[in-house]
Amino acid sequence: MQFRSTQSNKALVSFKDAVLRCLPQEGGLYVPASVMDLRQFFLYMDVDTGYPELVSTVAPPLLQGELNPFSASRVAESAFAFEPEILQLDERFSLLTLYNGPTGVFKDFGIAFLAAVMEELLKNNRRGMVLSAARGDTGVSIAHAFYQRQNMVSCLLYPSGPIRGLDPRTFVSNGGNIIPIQIRGTFDDCQRLVIEAIKDQPFAERYSISTANALNPGRLLPQAFYYLYAFIKLKQQLKGDLLFSVPCGNFGNFIAGLYAWKFGMPVRGFIAAMNANNAFGDFLTGAAFKPKPLISTISPELDVSVPSNYERFLSFYEEAPAVMRNMVFPEAIDDRLTREAMDKVWKQYGVLLDPHGAVAFAAAERMMASHDWCDGNAHIVVLATGHPAREAESVAKATGQLLAIPPRLAVLRKKSDPIALIKPHLDALEGAIASCI
Ligand SMILES: *Cc1c(COP(=O)(O)O)cnc(C)c1O
User: Fold this and answer.
1) What pLDDT digit, counting tens, does each position of 369-415 carry?
2) Strand order in the sheet with 8-13
3) Is 219's C-beta closer than 6 angstroms to any atom of ligand 1?
4) What are the residues whose beta carbons fall under 8 Å from the beta carbon of 70, sequence distance 6 or more?
5) Which of 95, 98, 106, 111 to mutate to test the pocket of ligand 1 (most atoms within 8 A of CB)?
6) Whose CA is nearest to atom 2 of ligand 1?
7) Which atom of ligand 1 is found nearest the CA of 251?
8) Which whole-number Å values give the CA distances from 220 to 20, 22, 177, 312, 369, in the listed order?
9) How far away, in angstroms, is 383 Cα from ligand 1 center?
10) Interacting residues of 44 by C-beta distance below 8 A, sequence separation 6+
11) What is the pLDDT of residues 96-140, one digit of tens each?
12) Atom of ligand 1 nearest to the CA of 356
């Protein structure tokens, strides 16, 4: 599979180049340049297939010779010590739980694959540096995935404020390959620096800079694999249409679902489950996109005003607007309905959902109730993107259930110090990097 820029379809690059360069020279973001039909590889896959096995079967044909089956197994085995799980609630709904990774959110899946595949792609190359803006627990997820990867250092740019969840034993100063740097500034400053560094050719080339932020297509593409996984687990029981309900913030997860459809997964549609920040829904159904001011909700990861994948959507819609509109169903769920959904899923099925998963569940229920063709026919897979213990307070308020925090999630609260504290300028960043590697 080759990649092109969202802003031009002239220059095509390989997967390796897209992953290592991250940003097209002509501007825009990388997106797959062609439709790949992978049906022959997953359609008849055994229901007992494990996740690493699925990934290592599908990745080689997808990446057309850039990853041979032997390398693909090594990548999948080393990336996935954790797996998604499918939990069938009843005839109508299943949950796809994606919170079994080190930080308890689905982002662990894309990041883990990216780190493992980069190590494979960089074999026999000089050292590469992965420079990423870090917010919340994404920095921890990146540190986990890149720790001890050969030929790689991972530099994390944190905004002002406490840095949590990192293990100082993994830092370069202690013989590891993780470099946490704090920027005197905001998360946006960190993101801007990452982009500036990638675009500054001498700097980028000297250190072979790429990123583990979502602009890297090597993080987005592998998120399609767990949609295929849900499909093979459920296909024997499906009597009618299959849909997915996805809690959407920056819409990366949602785009990955659309990729799975492009790879040939038989699916009727995708529910874009949003909270009160639902301006993007109008765009999805054909109106112009008018961003609205941000509203704070109990599903904070969905509090996004302009999704960072907006450009990727535009380019998707250019290709087949009518098809897209028939497959994409936006729903907006407020905090009250989110709490009700948490309570209902607990009482009815004995399962605890975090608020993000609850938004997706409530959206799925509304879809079922408001579309006649769904009734008694459709099966909706709800993506449970976050571990309920991460939002223990909201969960307790809605359900009365007190959750034990698993040890791997408890350590996410521990504070640590950065290796350097710098102004939000590229020179300062270059100096800090030069002084520690
Ligand atoms: C990041 C996140 C989301 C939103 O995912 P996007 O790809 O940005 O749409 C949903 N749920 C949880 C728990 C998250 O951490």
Assistant:
1) 999 999 888 999 999 999 999 999 999 999 999 999 999 999 999 99
2) 8-13, 3-5, 30-32
3) no
4) none
5) 106
6) 301
7) 9
8) 14, 12, 24, 11, 31
9) 10
10) none
11) 999 999 999 999 999 999 999 999 999 877 789 999 999 989 999
12) 11
Digit-coded pLDDT (tens) for 274-286: 999 999 998 888 8
Strands 420-422 and 379-384: unpaired
For each of the domains in the chain, give its residue range(s) and CATH number, in order of start: 84-106+220-408 (3.40.50.1100), 127-207+414-437 (3.40.50.1100)
Both structure tokens of 161: 């404020």
Structure token digits, residue 30: 């990388």
Q: How far is the CA of 434 from the centre of ligand 1 (A)?
A: 34
Phi-psi region of 27 (alpha: psi -120 to 50; beta: other; left: phi over 0): left
Check: CB of residue 13 under 8 Å from CB of residue 30. yes
* Strand ranges across the sheet with 128-133: 209-210, 128-133, 152-158, 178-183, 420-422
Q: Which atom of ligand 1 is nearest to the CA of 253?
A: 7
Cβ of 355 below 6 Å from ligand 1: no
**pTM attached to this predicted model:** 0.97
